[in-house]
Specification:
With about 575 residues, this protein is of the alpha+beta class. It is about 30% helix and about 15% strand. It binds 2-acetamido-2-deoxy-beta-D-glucopyranose (9 copies).
Length: about 575
């Protein structure tokens, strides 16, 4: 097959001709249709060392970002699906001042799946064309790499530091013209031209930026190292939450989003709960932390590929639970607040073919439909029981190799709080206690986004020191953003683990002494994304409480711990502003 035929063969096969709508098929090259085997999306730290395919990724992304911002398949328009500008994409009209993205909704995981597939499909098509332009001696290597090209993900649970070289302004790759040192398309996206006042409202804090930024300083310069320090300060919490999200939640609705409530209360930890934290810490006042602008930062797609991966891992383990109906309190560009979202709700504006059929959670359910998988999910050639077992084992190996992550400190993070509890010398306990902080709050409480920092022990006097304080347990983030439909009161639920901060108390963590310690030493502070201290009393409908439960470890590599029922430890928060009191109802 000649080079030209080779490329056009795949382009025809996978993309067909664009007619009325842009069909998102994902990628079909490299898929064994007989066995169902598909190339993996790879973890970025490994992917970056993979040579030709990494070169193609960087060059494809650069081409994508350069595309005329008025083109349907430009980076600007595709990023613009998520939030600003509040305009239609691929002919799908909307009525509300909001993006298409679904948050605080049961559609949160499934909506982002075709979104990532569209991004992957666009980069893949670029990669095919670029591969075909390498000098003859390199061409077959690059064309082979292009066939299995899939987007990478950033596993922030394994290493919460943004991987190198994402924060390097320049990057060197082997291009068809030899080694080039170029502006790194993962570092920022530069608007060209600067969006108009109708696209980015001028009174939005981010509208003034010519490029995306992370932790911007007063002069508007990115300070990636500040984002990394915040991420590191929360690393243990992120890992524990990621593991438990999958190990402990077998029901899709509470797994899926921060708005879920069963009438008795929320589920507190959810895929979206973790996802919000990464947005807030990476952005920290920059684009990633403001949802309608987040998708312009190139790291958004590495983050969301990982969110999709946790979703895929969860699906492999719990194959029978999926999208049920849930009222969408928040609304989107096309969904009016109060709509009953279901398995059949259209995932606007993503078309599954060229005839205008929109995806639904039903049709976007499986990664195999889009032609990729993840290293932890090898779902071909085995039955569902085996897949579930293998995936549990893979997750244990990766996130809980010692079998004790649910309950024990990981890295002996110091807590300089008081430790009134005697160390126990018990060595054979299998039942351990686990503690978490639950947070319930009105998302629009302050009409701006904010952090709630939790501490065990003394709080630094300067708010600037809070996000990375020695005594920090972890930070919860509320990703509020203003729009015409977001002034509706909507309760959001979140959770943070506590055990990693209870160093100095050996297992078992006796509830009486832990409560005593928390009563004395647990406290919290509210801070907005500009770094300003906010009085906790100003946060409407804030309710913080500590919960504890027993956890039984099995020690089997394909089993998860058995988690007991949570009980509420009211004394730990009694009398604290925003805390649940002793006599108070939920
Ligand atoms: C982008 O495309 C629009 C519409 O086709 C055109 O008017 C404009 O000149 C193009 N901009 C650039 C920089 O090529
Ligand atoms: C985490 O990632 C950072 C950035 O890539 C790297 O410098 C660091 O060595 C990694 N840490 C570990 C423990 O692998
Ligand atoms: C964006 O990154 C490029 C290098 O990749 C740099 O030249 C440019 O100044 C950055 N933009 C801003 C506003 O910092
Ligand atoms: C920006 O201005 C618009 C129109 O005047 C207004 O509706 C909106 O609330 C303002 N947004 C902020 C964040 O001040
Ligand atoms: C939402 O739709 C589902 C499926 O059609 C239905 O069973 C459920 O009762 C509806 N819920 C509400 C609150 O309307
Ligand atoms: C699109 O519509 C045409 C004409 O109605 C039909 O032949 C074709 O099968 C449809 N394609 C898909 C992918 O649905
Ligand atoms: C799944 O496969 C395993 C291993 O081949 C087999 O032992 C088991 O019986 C199968 N389970 C079902 C439900 O088919
Ligand atoms: C712990 O607190 C003591 C007394 O306030 C102080 O001297 C010590 O430096 C602190 N240790 C750490 C690691 O912060
Ligand atoms: C634990 O063992 C040490 C020495 O082996 C002993 O001094 C201490 O009292 C024991 N602690 C408890 C709580 O039993």
């Amino acid at each position: 097959m000649s080079r030209f035929n080779f490329v056009s063969f795949f382009l025809t096969l996978c993309l067909a001709t664009l007619t009325n709508s842009y069909g998102i098929k994902g990628v079909c090259s490299g898929v064994n249709t007989a066995t169902g085997q598909r190339p993996f999306r790879q973890e970025f730290s490994k992917f970056k060392d993979s040579g030709p395919v990494f070169d193609l990724y960087i060059l494809s992304l650069e081409q994508f970002q350069q595309r005329n911002q008025s083109a349907l398949l430009s980076y600007y328009q595709v990023a613009g699906i998520h939030g600003h500008p509040y305009i239609s994409w691929d002919g799908v009209q909307g009525n509300y001042q909001a993006g298409y993205c679904t948050h605080g909704s049961i559609l949160f995981p499934s909506w982002h799946r075709p979104y990532m597939a569209a991004y992957e499909q666009i980069l893949w098509a670029n990669a095919q064309r670029i591969a075909a332009t390498y000098p003859v001696v390199q061409r077959s290597t690059y064309e082979a790499a292009a066939i299995t090209f899939r987007i990478p993900y950033w596993d922030w649970a394994i290493n919460s530091t943004m991987p190198d070289p994402i924060n390097d302004p320049m990057i060197t790759v082997n291009s068809p013209h030899g080694l080039v040192n170029m502006a790194n398309p993962l570092y920022n996206y530069t608007f060209h031209p600067q969006p108009s006042a109708t696209d980015f409202p001028p009174n939005d804090s981010l509208a003034k930026y010519h490029s995306t930024v992370r932790s911007p300083d007063a002069a508007g310069q990115s300070q990636s190292s500040v984002s990394n320090q915040i991420l590191q300060a929360n690393a243990q919490a992120i890992l524990v939450l990621s593991y438990q999200l999958i190990a402990d939640q077998s029901d899709y609705a509470p797994f899926s989003n921060t708005g879920y409530t069963d009438g008795r209360g929320g589920n507190y930890n959810s895929l979206e709960n973790m996802h919000d934290a990464i947005h807030a810490f990476v952005g920290n006042g920059g684009h990633m932390s403001i949802i309608p602008y987040a998708s312009f930062d190139p790291i958004f797609y590495l983050h969301h590929a990982n969110v999709d991966r946790l979703f895929a891992i969860w699906q492999a383990i719990y194959p029978n639970s999926y999208t049920t109906s849930e009222v969408n309190a928040q609304g989107t560009f096309t969904i009016s607040p109060g709509t009953n979202d279901t398995l059949y709700s259209p995932l606007t504006p993503f078309h599954s073919n060229y005839n205008g059929t929109l995806y639904t959670s039903k049709t976007a359910r499986y990664t195999r439909h889009f032609g990729y998988s993840y290293p932890e999910v090898v779902d071909w050639g085995i039955n569902a029981t085996q897949l579930s077992s293998n995936t549990r084992a893979n997750l244990n190996n990766l996130y809980n190799p010692t079998g004790s992550i649910a309950t024990r400190p990981l890295l002996h993070k110091r807590s300089n709080g008081t430790a009134p509890c005697a160390r126990s010398n018990a060595t054979t306990e299998v039942i351990e206690y686990q503690y978490s902080i639950n947070i319930r709050v009105d998302k629009s409480a302050l009409h701006r986004p904010f952090f709630i920092h939790f501490f065990l022990g003394p709080v630094p006097s300067s708010p600037a020191a809070w996000p990375t304080a020695q005594t920090l347990i972890a930070t919860h983030s509320i990703l509020y953003y203003a729009s015409s439909i977001t002034n509706i009161k909507r309760t959001t639920y979140g959770q943070l683990p506590l055990n990693h901060a209870l160093e100095g108390i050996n297992s078992p963590l006796d509830p009486d002494c832990v409560v005593q310690l928390l009563k004395e030493a647990l406290c919290w502070r509210v801070q907005d994304f500009q770094g300003q201290h906010v009085d906790t009393g100003e946060v409407a409908n804030l309710k913080i409480f500590v919960v504890g439960r027993e956890v039984v470890e099995h020690g089997l590599r394909d089993r998860f711990p058995a988690y007991g029922e949570w009980s509420i430890l009211r004394e730990a928060t009694d009398g604290k502003v925003g805390g649940l009191g002793r006599g108070e109802g939920m």
